[in-house]
């Protein structure tokens, strides 16, 4: 079974969030599950630098696609190759005018969306369809698996470019419904999309062209990254305006929980931390905590309950719930470390809140993979108070490192963390602290449960042991995707 995996990020070459972690791990797991997987990525500078070409560039053939795209992209080429570090086969879309520029993959250095994003990411979907219909004479996918709004036109172009052939099937995975790829209606013609599709039951979203909606309407199957989020997005509350479409297509929608790459996230071997530890030999965790306290100028107190967050600073992540509880957290003898980057207003609010607690609270701004590992290794509690969370990976990393997750009961957070209720402690299923109402007061209650459990060292240790022994391998999700591909290709399991 040949699968084309279409996305924009792959760790460690380009990462703005969990999409990159998934892009690095899921294709590998799918290969182990018996699929032949090639990836299609834009040739952003950092991605191109980590890929070795395996043959001459392929011209995108004239498969009836929109000429205008090629004009915008000045004759894009497909470069077949492989990721140097992992050997993963890839195609890069070489279109320097679209992808080679200073700034981020989606936004400029000032945080403004690139003005030509419609063309930049339509090209990704279009190249996927071209590969689907023979752009590489050596290799053709049986199925195209596209991820998030950037790749969301792939299912539609696969239908439009099929001609007389049966359309190649597609799977679309929603990693975050809040980012939809909305563009002016006029983009439709520029992207070669038939005007007849610009209507409410196809591509139109309140007068705009929606890439995300295109995928929800035209993909043969829709998945998202946790079972709970798959249910939540069919409700008006969490559907980001697309719940109606998702309800209509509900029989094609399912949730497959993400996994963790335990080669990278394992406290006994982690190359980015110095003090290693695991269940049964926890002294390394105490050393990791002391080292972090020293590094960030916190009081070196072994008994301080260390709360951490490693997060994009965006509205989604709910970090604005923290300042009101901070005084009590410090008063109870706790400490707080936040590593984040993103929204300047959220950064300013956190900075103001933490300022009054020198020696007990530290804010690190920026994106720092090594520091993220050191913080999670050192932590007693990892905070993920997100308003919504399709899956969330840091709570899973926290579990493995004995940093008990304190989470809002939504999406993948609700699917992966069990609250320390008395009965859950008693039956051995407790793994963290879960709050239900999205408020600082509710978070405060969960924080108090963390302090209460800490005063019962034997019970804390038992919960921590259980957390560290849980496994969210990629094997099971890869099998679930494979079974889905087989159903769509009507291959018997
Ligand atoms: P999202 O994709 O919504 O940001 P996830 O929890 O799925 O949320 O994935 C976030 C990923 O990005 C994790 O691997 C996390 O460790 C990492 N991360 C987030 N913020 C930072 C940061 N400031 N520095 C380093 N890594 C970060
Ligand atoms: C998105 C979501 C996050 C998820 C990640 C990987 O960025 O916000 O919850 O874990 O994608 O699927």
Structurally, how many domains make up the residues?
A: 2
Fraction in beta strands: 15-25%
Which CATH C-level class of the largest domain is it?
Answer: Alpha Beta
By secondary-structure content and strand pairing, the structural class works out as alpha/beta
Find the CATH topology of the largest domain. Rossmann fold
Q: Mind telling me the CATH superfamily name of the largest domain? A: Glycogen Phosphorylase B
Give the C-alpha Rg. 23 Å
Number of strands: 19
Q: Note the main sheet.
A: 10 strands, mixed
List the helices and strands and how they pair.
Blueprint: E1 2-6, H1 18-32, E2 36-42, H2 45-49, E3 51-53, E4 58-59, H3 67-73, E5 77-83, E6 89-94, H4 96-99, H5 117-132, E7 143-147, H6 154-160, E8 170-174, E9 182-183, H7 187-190, E10 204-205, E11 208-210, H8 211-218, E12 221-224, H9 227-232, H10 243-248, E13 253-255, H11 283-295, E14 305-313, H12 326-331, E15 334-342, H13 344-355, E16 361-365, H14 369-378, E17 381-384, H15 394-400, E18 404-408, H16 411-416, H17 422-427, E19 433-435, H18 440-454, H19 457-469, H20 475-488
Helix pairs in contact: 1-20, 3-5, 5-6, 6-8, 11-14
The protein binds adenosine-5'-diphosphate and alpha-D-glucopyranose (GLC).
Adenosine-5'-diphosphate (ADP) is lined by residues 17-19, 21, 310-312, 339-341, 367-369, 372, 391-394.
């Amino acid at each position: 079974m040949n699968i084309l995996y279409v996305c924009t990020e792959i760790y460690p070459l380009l990462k703005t969030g969990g999409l990159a972690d998934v892009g690095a791990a899921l294709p590998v797991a799918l290969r182990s599950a018996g699929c032949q997987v090639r990836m299609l990525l834009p040739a952003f500078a950092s991605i191109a630098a980590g890929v070795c070409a395996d043959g001459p560039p392929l011209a995108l053939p004239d498969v009836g696609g929109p000429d205008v795209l090629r004009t915008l992209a000045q004759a894009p080429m497909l470069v077949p190759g492989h990721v140097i570090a992992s050997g993963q086969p890839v195609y890069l879309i070489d279109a320097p005018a679209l992808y080679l520029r200073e700034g981020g993959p989606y936004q400029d250095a000032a945080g403004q969306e690139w003005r030509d994003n419609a063309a930049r990411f339509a090209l990704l979907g279009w190249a996927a369809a071209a590969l689907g219909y023979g752009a590489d004479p050596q290799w053709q996918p049986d199925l195209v698996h596209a991820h998030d709004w950037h790749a969301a036109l792939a299912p539609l172009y696969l239908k439009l470019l099929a001609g007389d052939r049966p359309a190649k099937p597609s799977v679309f995975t929603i990693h975050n419904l809040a980012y939809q790829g909305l563009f002016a209606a006029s983009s439709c013609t520029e992207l070669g999309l038939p005007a007849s599709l610009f209507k409410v039951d196809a591509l139109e979203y309140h007068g705009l062209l929606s890439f995300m909606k295109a995928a929800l309407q035209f993909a043969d199957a829709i998945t998202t990254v946790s079972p709970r989020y798959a249910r939540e997005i069919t409700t008006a509350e969490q559907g980001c305006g697309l719940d109606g479409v998702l309800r209509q297509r509900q029989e094609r929608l399912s949730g497959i929980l993400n996994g963790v790459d335990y080669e990278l996230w394992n406290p006994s071997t982690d190359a980015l931390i110095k003090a290693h530890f695991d269940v049964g030999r926890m002294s390394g965790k105490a050393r990791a905590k002391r080292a972090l306290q020293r590094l960030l100028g916190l009081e070196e107190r072994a008994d301080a309950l260390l709360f951490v967050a490693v997060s994009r600073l965006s509205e989604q992540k709910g970090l604005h719930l923290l300042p009101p509880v901070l005084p009590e957290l410090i008063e109870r003898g706790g400490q707080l470390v936040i590593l984040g980057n993103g929204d300047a207003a959220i950064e300013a609010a956190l900075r103001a809140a933490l300022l009054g607690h020198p020696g007990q609270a530290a804010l690190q701004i920026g994106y720092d993979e090594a520091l993220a590992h050191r913080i999670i290794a050192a932590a007693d509690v990892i905070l993920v108070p997100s308003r919504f969370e399709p899956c969330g990976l840091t709570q899973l990393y926290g579990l493995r490192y004995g940093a008990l997750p304190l989470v809002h009961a939504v999406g993948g957070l609700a699917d992966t963390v069990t609250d320390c209720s008395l009965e859950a402690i008693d039956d051995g299923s407790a793994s963290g602290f879960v709050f239900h109402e999205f408020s600082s007061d509710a978070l405060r209650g969960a924080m108090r449960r963390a302090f209460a459990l800490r005063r019962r060292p034997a019970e804390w240790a038992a919960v921590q042991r259980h957390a560290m022994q849980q496994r969210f391998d990629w094997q099971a999700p890869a099998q679930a995707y494979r079974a889905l591909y087989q159903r769509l290709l009507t291959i018997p399991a």
